[in-house]
Structures are given as C-alpha cells and as structure tokens.
Write a structure and sequence with these properties.
The protein is α/β, with parallel strands linked by helices and 118 residues long. 45% of the residues lie in helices and 12% in strands. The chain has four helices and four strands; from the N terminus they run H-E-E-H-E-H-E-H. The strands form two sheets. It has a two-stranded parallel ribbon. It has a two-stranded parallel sheet with strand order 3-4. The radius of gyration is 14 Å and the shape is globular.
C-alpha cells in the first residue's frame, strides 16, 4: 500500500481496483526489466499473476503485511539481494536489520509509471 498510497489519485475509493492496477504495473515493469518482484497485501486477494509473486499477511491487522515482509526477508537465504519498497521508517529499520536494502515507495512509483505510459 506504500506504493499505491504514494500518489493521491483517489485510490482509497477503490482499494481492490488500486491493487489490481499495481499488480498490472508490476507485471509489466518486472517483465521489461527482468526483475523478480513480490508484493505483499494485508488482506487476501483474488488477484493473480503469472509474472510476480503475490502474498498476503496470515492475519489481516495493522502492520501485518509489514510483519510478513520481515518474515520473508528473514527466511531468505540471500536477504542482501532483496530491496524492500516502503516509505514506512519502522519497516525500513526492521528489514535493514535483517540484511535487506530499502527503496523509497515514491521513487519506485516513478520507476514503474513510465513503463505503463507506453
């Protein structure tokens, strides 16, 4: 939601639609840049992708997606190869201490938006 929320484009009126648009953008960006991408949502979703991995927190609650991201980073054999996209300072600290890097959500949005303008 950090990437979705980085631009006040009315996403809050249709949260599921915003998630669908994000996954579509990530699909195109991941394919164009040959990057492995995973997205973590707080709530389960029926959105599917054959390009990116879609995860959700085991229990929908405040910061549960953050907890799932930290769990995923800690479980990875190479956390130093992971870039977590977030604007949340606390999540940033948690994943950095687990070995991952942090990339600002608004800057990532700038990266994925141009691929969708073509």
């Amino acid at each position: 939601m950090n990437v979705i929320g980085s631009r006040p484009d009315g996403w809050w009126r249709d949260r599921e639609g915003a998630r669908v648009r994000l996954v579509a953008q990530l699909d195109r960006w991941s394919t164009a840049h040959s990057q492995s991408v995973a997205v973590v949502f707080e709530h389960p979703t029926s959105i599917r992708s054959s390009v990116i991995a879609i995860h959700h927190a085991s229990k929908a609650a405040a910061n549960s997606a953050d907890d799932e991201i930290v769990r995923m980073v800690c479980a990875d054999d190479h956390p130093d190869e992971i870039n977590v996209v977030t604007s949340d300072a606390t999540l940033g600290e948690r994943v950095r201490s687990a070995g991952a890097a942090v990339y600002p959500a608004a800057k990532f949005r700038e990266l994925i938006d141009p691929i969708n303008a073509t």
